[in-house]
Task: inverse folding
């Protein structure tokens, strides 16, 4: 189901057409969906508290400071919008909403350049309420409706952050909390890359066996730091070393497992350094959506690669093609080069002219010597002025003297 941000109060619908060949990956296809917006006034109390009756779209920057700029990008052969960070930084609300925009589950007006955070939460709430599960039993229906209410209750927290406690034994392992229900309802996976390498057997045993989550690992490290048992102290030091060496909350094995776990063309939320980002896997390449306001006018910068723990990344466009900075034109350098070429051409021309003049002078000097100094050619001509030869009458004969 979908929402369309419209400039009128009339409900707008979009088509939901999921490809049958990619059913397992259907939420990651940027395809439109159709479902008319409901104008039913008999909404529940929770729904009426969350959803505002404002269907007007903002085509100008909101007056309050709590808003997101909109950047229009080329993605999946379409022009689609993404929200950029505001003062709250890369929050979970931003990552989730951008996935729904790229999936075309929520559609906003094509002439919008900004949207208020309040409006974003409203659209997200409407989208959750309109998602229907028709094949649920009565018991599952009750649980589902309770999950919806829990999700609506935590939507406002999404704009600042969530309490997330990751586990070190898998990129999709998190301690379940109430806030995580939002990801389940929207069919969005949450990943991280802070995973212990299985080849580090001792550390993996310490972490995975007794303290699989981040909070448990920190508690164990503090508790055993001043222990009288040497084994406990050693475990505390190993944990502290692991946390210190991987302060970026990303390991090489985590990147490898993340690439193996995510499906091709999948959009998900990536948690790292207490930030939430939109991540996309494209042909075995992990790409993180660039949502910084500084890149608003750089339409060809859409993602950055996730290949290394040291943030040695490259920018790409909306198709995963590496972005390269255009070479700047140095006008002064070009002018100096042109002047040097001109001087060289002038030098060669003057040299050729000088050589030509020298050749002409030498030719003229030889010509003035001909009357006073007969040449060898003139002697031959003089010798030819002799009497008739006996060979003139018999050219075919050979005479020996």
Result:
């Amino acid at each position: 189901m979908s929402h369309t941000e419209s400039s009128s109060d009339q409900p707008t619908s979009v088509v939901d057409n999921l490809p049958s060949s990619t059913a397992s990956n259907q939420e990651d296809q940027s395809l439109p969906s159709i479902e008319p917006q409901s104008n039913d006034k008999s909404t529940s109390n929770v729904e009426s508290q969350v959803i505002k009756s404002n269907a007007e779209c903002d085509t100008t920057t909101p007056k309050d400071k709590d808003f997101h700029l909109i950047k229009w990008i080329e993605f999946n052969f379409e022009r689609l919008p993404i929200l950029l960070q505001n003062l709250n930084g890369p929050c979970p609300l931003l990552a989730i909403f951008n996935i729904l925009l790229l999936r075309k589950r929520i559609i906003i007006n094509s002439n919008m350049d900004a949207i208020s955070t309040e409006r974003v939460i409203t659209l997200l709430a409407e989208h959750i309420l309109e998602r229907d599960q028709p094949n649920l039993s009565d018991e599952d229906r009750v649980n589902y409706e309770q999950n919806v209410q829990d999700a609506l209750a935590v939507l406002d927290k999404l704009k600042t952050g969530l309490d997330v406690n990751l586990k070190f034994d898998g990129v999709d392992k998190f301690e379940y909390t109430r806030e995580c229900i939002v990801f389940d309802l929207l069919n969005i996976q949450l990943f991280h890359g802070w995973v212990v390498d299985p080849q580090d057997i001792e550390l993996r045993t310490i972490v995975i066996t007794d303290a699989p989550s981040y909070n448990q690992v920190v508690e164990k490290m503090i508790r055993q730091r001043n222990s009288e048992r040497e084994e406990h102290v050693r475990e505390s030091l190993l944990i502290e070393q692991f946390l210190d060496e991987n302060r970026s909350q990303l390991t090489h094995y985590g990147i490898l497992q993340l690439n193996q776990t995510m499906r091709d063309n999948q959009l998900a939320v990536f948690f790292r350094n207490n930030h939430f980002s939109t991540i996309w896997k494209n042909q075995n390449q992990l790409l993180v959506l660039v949502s910084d306001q500084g890149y608003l006018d750089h339409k060809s910068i859409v993602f950055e690669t996730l290949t290394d723990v040291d943030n040695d990344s490259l920018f790409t466009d909306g198709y995963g093609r590496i972005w390269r900075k255009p070479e700047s034109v140095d006008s002064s350098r070009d002018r100096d080069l042109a002047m040097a070429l001109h001087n060289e051409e002038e030098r060669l021309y003057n040299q050729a002219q000088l050589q030509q003049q020298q050749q002409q002078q030498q030719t003229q000097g030889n010509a003035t010597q001909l009357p006073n100094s007969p040449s060898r050619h003139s002697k031959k001509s003089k010798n030819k002025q002799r009497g008739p030869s006996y060979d003139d009458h018999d050219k075919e004969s050979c005479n020996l003297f």
Notes: The two ends are 126 Å apart (CA to CA).
